[in-house]
Amino acid sequence: SPSPAPPSPLPRRPPSTRRLSARWRQPRQMPADMDGDQSNMSVGTNGGPQRQGTILDRAGTHLQRAGSNLGLQRASTLPTEDRELRHAATMPITHDVESIRPCCCGLWKLQQMVGFILATGLLLIMCIVRPMKAYPYANDMLGITLLCGIFWVFEVVPIYITSLAPVILMPLFGITSSEIAAQAYWNMIQMLVIGTYLVDIALEEVHLPRRAALKLLLTVGVVQPGVLLFMFMILCWALSMFCNNIAVTLMVTPFAIEILNAAEEQARDEAAAACETTDSDEDVVMDASTKEVQRFSSGVMLGIAYASTCGGLATLTGTVVNEVLYGVGEVTSQVTFAKWFEYAFPTSLVSVVIAYLILWLRYCRGLQLRHLTREVLETEYEELVKEIGPFSRDELFVGLIQIVQFVLLFLRPELDKWMGKTFTNPATGKSFTEKLLGDPTLACLPASLLFFIPSTVRPGQALLTWPAVHEKFDFGLLLLIGG
């Protein structure tokens, strides 16, 4: 019997009925697994035993067997996850990256550009003309509502990011405070987490921490265990003040493991070469060569964890624990981002210094580490450049947005004085100022810009895409904060 054809890399189009009929008119032997009763009987149109069933039945059996191997025949360009199909179904314009996008540096289609102009135009008209004289803020709220509706219909940005517009715009227009607007979503602390995590994901997408770490190590140039440990720890400590310390650990650890694995591989190669030229026991030499690298690796892994924890102490957004504490009403009313930084930064600095000294004494003292050379770092940087290219505009913009977010959160007390809404109590004649701008607005505003700035590395996409957010955002953190 003929052997079945090997599966093609792409799913085949079913042949027509005419071709199937002609094929089955030719005498042939049937495979045993296609017919249990007369598996080896000749099939023809004139004389001889005939298989039961119609031509289409037999063709359907063939197609059914092919269908069972669709997992092997699936094209690499097709969506492979249910969530990708759901994203493409709910936002077809955003995910259709192969279509012509003549607007906004190749980011938007004409339809999206029309929606952006129409939405912002109506918002400006509502704010300038103000048709409802009796209720001034109703004009602003109507403009925000129209903007959200048009953005949703025209899919200017992912529909989920459009949903952040009210919590950003309502405090900016003086309609209500960030705390009240955030209650429609979760609460102000969870919205603060979302805003900061979106920027953290963008940093990971453009590999900015990885490039910064390699450039820092190559600039220092001294490949000593103590210096390398200090560089890793100071990088994680500094990043954790801007980003969530969990995200920093997840970003830096894989990169550190790559460097340490390269050093261990080089140690094994040198040990094998030494055994070829001498009569030494290969296992003994290799064990001695890799033991130093493994000892240093333990110190680096602990250093990344300790430094990220110490850096997260310094700011309210550095770790989830601080954000949970900030959600307590009495703390929220008295502690600002700047006040917390003023108190916690010295504690954070002393903590990371003590952690470094302990790790140096335990894992780096007396260690030579000949196999972790500058050549290893240069090789890693060359592989990085091959993978993502030279320093791009995407990395620059994401880094600037991270800095802007940090500065806005730091300067919130001054912004409250500028954007506050003053009320006068008619009974007492005393006036008080309501704080409109809160941390959720100041965190989500820079984060939303990531979806409006076109990427130069991925034409037709923004700096941050929703599939990347859906894949890397730990929504369980929101439940953790509530718990």
UniProtKB/TrEMBL annotation:
Protein location: Membrane
Gene Ontology molecular-function annotations: C4-dicarboxylate transmembrane transporter activity; dicarboxylic acid transmembrane transporter activity
Region (Disordered): 1-54
Biased composition (Polar residues): 37-53
Pro residues bias spans: 1-14
Top-level division of the source organism's lineage: Eukaryota
Residue stretches spanning the membrane: 110-129, 141-164, 215-240, 300-320, 340-361
UniProt keyword annotations, A-Z: Membrane, Transmembrane, Transmembrane helix
Cellular component terms per the entry's GO annotation: plasma membrane
Topology relative to the membrane: Multi-pass membrane protein
InterPro entries: SLC13A/DASS
Keyword Transmembrane helix: yes
Protein name: Citrate transporter-like domain-containing protein
